[in-house]
Amino acid sequence: MVKSLVYSHLYHWYETHRRVLPWRETTDSYAIWLSEVILQQTRVAQGLEYYMRFISRWPTVEDLANADEAEVLREWQGLGYYSRARNLHKAAQQIVESIKFKVERTFPRTFEELRALPGVGDYTAGAIASFAYDLPYPAMDGNVYRVVARLLDIDEPFDTTAGKKLFHKHIEELLDREHPRLFNSAIMEFGALHCTPALGDACVSCPLQSCCMGYAHGTAELLPVRKPRPKVRDRWLDYHVYVQRNKVQGTKEEVYTLIQRRENPKDIWFHLYEFPCEESVSASGLPAKRSMLCQAEPVCEFTHTLSHQRIHARFILHKVQKMPDIPGTIAIRWDDLNDYALSRLTLRALDTLCANPQN
Question: In the annotation, is 36 catalytic?
Answer without folding.
Answer: yes
